[in-house]
């Protein structure tokens, strides 16, 4: 049997229709107005630190806004440490988990449900079940923004979240290093494929300034994320410096936006938060 270009086109269209029927219906998270996902193509680029300080920056810029953080990195949850939170969530009368709160930000994480050092050795179906619980069985109250700290990469968790809930936009975090930018591009392209708007890129660890002489060194390269943003046709939301205080305060569970609000590092995160809000307004306008 000879296949023509038309017959291949028909097969492709039927496959798309079958896939569309198989996708879950998107359902908003109760009480949440807008969901912002913070993602990276690879680990180790400061995604979780950026997510936490973005959430705090949103409230710092506009205290009337309510913001929550969902740690969707099931295998390596960082939010409990970064937000200085421990303990198990209480249950409401309707059997929903109450988020743990610090710095005025309600947080939910797999880290609250397992021991600190316990490895999470789960297959895909168990991970998907955990994500479903984190999405649907938490009493967030009323939130203007829910910031979701995504796991690194472009796998099942990312697809499950993007297919199950409406997402206002994605923030891609990368260092200026070429190898990190390759994976950041894959992350951005994934969101485009699933019709999630990419709000822009955050160039993390953009420059190191010597505390002794103030000389600036671009350890991971110079402006690589800006070049990638131009290629993708998206904006750079801001630059975050490689600074000792960010690392020290994160390790103490005191994010720099609240622990040192007048510092240039905190101001950098607040500028990113303002750029995110501006992009959301542009998309909804």
Automatic annotation (TrEMBL):
<dbReference type="GO" id="GO:0140663">
    <property type="term" value="F:ATP-dependent FeS chaperone activity"/>
</dbReference>
<dbReference type="Pfam" id="PF10609">
    <property type="entry name" value="ParA"/>
</dbReference>
<dbReference type="GO" id="GO:0005759">
    <property type="term" value="C:mitochondrial matrix"/>
</dbReference>
<keyword id="KW-0004">4Fe-4S</keyword>
<keyword id="KW-0067">ATP-binding</keyword>
<dbReference type="GO" id="GO:0032981">
    <property type="term" value="P:mitochondrial respiratory chain complex I assembly"/>
</dbReference>
<feature type="region of interest" description="Disordered">
    <location>
        <begin position="1"/>
        <end position="24"/>
    </location>
</feature>
<keyword id="KW-0496">Mitochondrion</keyword>
<dbReference type="InterPro" id="IPR033756">
    <property type="entry name" value="YlxH/NBP35"/>
</dbReference>
<keyword id="KW-0809">Transit peptide</keyword>
<dbReference type="GO" id="GO:0046872">
    <property type="term" value="F:metal ion binding"/>
</dbReference>
<comment type="similarity">
    <text>Belongs to the Mrp/NBP35 ATP-binding proteins family.</text>
</comment>
<keyword id="KW-0408">Iron</keyword>
<comment type="function">
    <text>Iron-sulfur cluster transfer protein involved in the assembly of the mitochondrial membrane respiratory chain NADH dehydrogenase (Complex I). May deliver one or more Fe-S clusters to complex I subunits.</text>
</comment>
<dbReference type="GO" id="GO:0016226">
    <property type="term" value="P:iron-sulfur cluster assembly"/>
</dbReference>
<protein>
    <recommendedName>
        <fullName>Iron-sulfur cluster transfer protein NUBPL</fullName>
    </recommendedName>
</protein>
<dbReference type="InterPro" id="IPR019591">
    <property type="entry name" value="Mrp/NBP35_ATP-bd"/>
</dbReference>
<keyword id="KW-0479">Metal-binding</keyword>
<dbReference type="InterPro" id="IPR027417">
    <property type="entry name" value="P-loop_NTPase"/>
</dbReference>
<dbReference type="GO" id="GO:0005524">
    <property type="term" value="F:ATP binding"/>
</dbReference>
<dbReference type="InterPro" id="IPR044304">
    <property type="entry name" value="NUBPL-like"/>
</dbReference>
<dbReference type="GO" id="GO:0051539">
    <property type="term" value="F:4 iron, 4 sulfur cluster binding"/>
</dbReference>
<dbReference type="InterPro" id="IPR000808">
    <property type="entry name" value="Mrp-like_CS"/>
</dbReference>
<keyword id="KW-0547">Nucleotide-binding</keyword>
<keyword id="KW-0411">Iron-sulfur</keyword>
């Amino acid at each position: 049997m000879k296949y023509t270009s038309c017959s291949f086109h028909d097969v492709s269209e039927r496959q798309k229709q079958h896939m569309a029927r198989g996708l879950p219906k998107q359902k908003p998270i109760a009480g949440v107005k807008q969901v912002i996902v913070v993602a990276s193509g690879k680990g180790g680029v400061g995604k979780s630190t950026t997510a936490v300080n973005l959430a705090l920056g949103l409230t710092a810029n506009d205290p009337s806004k309510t913001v929550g953080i969902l740690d969707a990195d099931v295998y390596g949850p960082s939010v409990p440490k970064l937000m200085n939170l421990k303990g198990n969530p209480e249950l409401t009368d309707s059997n929903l988990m109450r988020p743990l709160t610090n710095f005025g930000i309600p947080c939910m994480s797999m880290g609250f449900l397992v021991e600190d050092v316990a490895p999470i050795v789960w297959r895909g179906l168990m991970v998907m079940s955990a994500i479903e619980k984190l999405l649907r069985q938490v009493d967030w109250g009323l939130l203007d923004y829910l910031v979701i700290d995504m796991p690194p990469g472009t796998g099942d968790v990312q697809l499950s979240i993007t297919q199950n809930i409406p997402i206002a936009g994605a923030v891609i975090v990368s260092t200026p290093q070429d190898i990190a930018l390759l994976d950041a591009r894959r992350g951005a392209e994934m969101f485009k494929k699933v019709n999630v708007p990419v709000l822009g890129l955050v160039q993390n660890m953009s420059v190191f300034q010597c505390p002794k002489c103030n000389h600036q060194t671009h350890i991971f390269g110079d402006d690589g994320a800006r070049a990638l943003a131009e290629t993708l046709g998206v904006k750079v939301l801001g630059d975050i410096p490689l600074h000792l205080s960010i690392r020290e305060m994160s390790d103490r569970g005191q994010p720099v936006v609240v622990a040192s609000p007048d510092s240039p590092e905190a101001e950098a995160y607040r500028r990113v938060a303002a750029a995110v809000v501006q992009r959301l307004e542009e998309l909804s306008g």
